[in-house]
Amino acid sequence: MRPHLLVRAAGALLLVAAVAACSADTDRPDAHAPQNVLYRADYPFYTSDDQLFERASLVVQGRVQPASKVVRLVQAAPQGQALPAPVEAERREGMVVTVRTVTVSRVFKGDVKPGDVVQVKQLGGKLDGVTYSEEHGVPLLDNGQYTLFLETYPDQPASLLNPVQGQYLVDAGNGLRSLPGNEITTSVNRLDTLADR
């Protein structure tokens, strides 16, 4: 097991752990055997759509484009803070994220307009033969229509406030469906009301 790393992203304190898959022949480990890395993250928990809306810097509805890219995101070192050597090594290695493009159809909050595209990153993806995944993460689906509660950054793609509470599937009647595990319900009319405050 690799050392643990604490990094700050999307308001979440992330704990990174890597687990290599075992080779079928345990006496002769194969350097080319598939590996899996599991990210564990502790995200802020919200109790209402008011809280989600207030905390988000961008709230949009849009469609996820089928093309995505997997990249290694290297976090900047905390200013004035020395990290233990193993943690610093992990920080320099970075975290693997999948970046998806969302074409915006409706804006409830934020400095974008319909027709714009927003890049959204989520932990995990497959890179260099290694599969990275986030415990309890729910990847956005290609061509899925969503309402997203996002935190934006000047130098990297936006992040969901919470992987479960930060995304709502849009159904055929433009209703918003929360994911399993998210008890917060909301609607387009409700978000319009929050936007008008």
What is this structure's SSE topology?
Blueprint: E1 5-9, E2 12-19, E3 35-42, H1 49-55, E4 58-73, H2 85-93, E5 95-109, E6 117-123, E7 125-127, E8 130-134, E9 145-151, E10 158-160, E11 167-170, E12 176-178, H3 188-195
Parallel strand pairs: 3-8, 6-10
Antiparallel strand pairs: 1-2, 2-3, 4-5, 4-9, 5-6, 7-8, 9-10, 9-11, 11-12
Structure description:
This protein is mainly beta. The protein is built from 3 helices and 12 strands, in the order βββαβαββββββββα. It has helices at 49-55, 85-93, 188-195, and strands at residues 5-9, 12-19, 35-42, 58-73, 95-109, 117-123, 125-127, 130-134, 145-151, 158-160, 167-170, 176-178. Strands 1-2-3-8-7 form a 5-stranded mixed sheet. A 5-stranded mixed β-barrel has the order 4-5-6-10-9. A hairpin with a 2-residue loop joins β7 (125-127) and β8.
Main sheet: strand order: 1-2-3-8-7
Net shape: globular
Distance between the termini: 49 Å
> How many strand elements?
12
Low-confidence stretches: 1-29
Provide the helix percentage: 10-25%
Please trace the helix and strand order, writing H or E for each element.
Answer: EEEHEHEEEEEEEEH
| Number of distinct helices | 3
Strand content: 35-45%
Brief sketch in words of this structure:
Helix content is 12%, strand content 43%. The chain has 197 residues and is mainly beta.
Key traits:
mainly beta; 3 helices; disordered N terminus; 12 strands; five-stranded mixed beta barrel; five-stranded mixed sheet; 197 residues; single chain
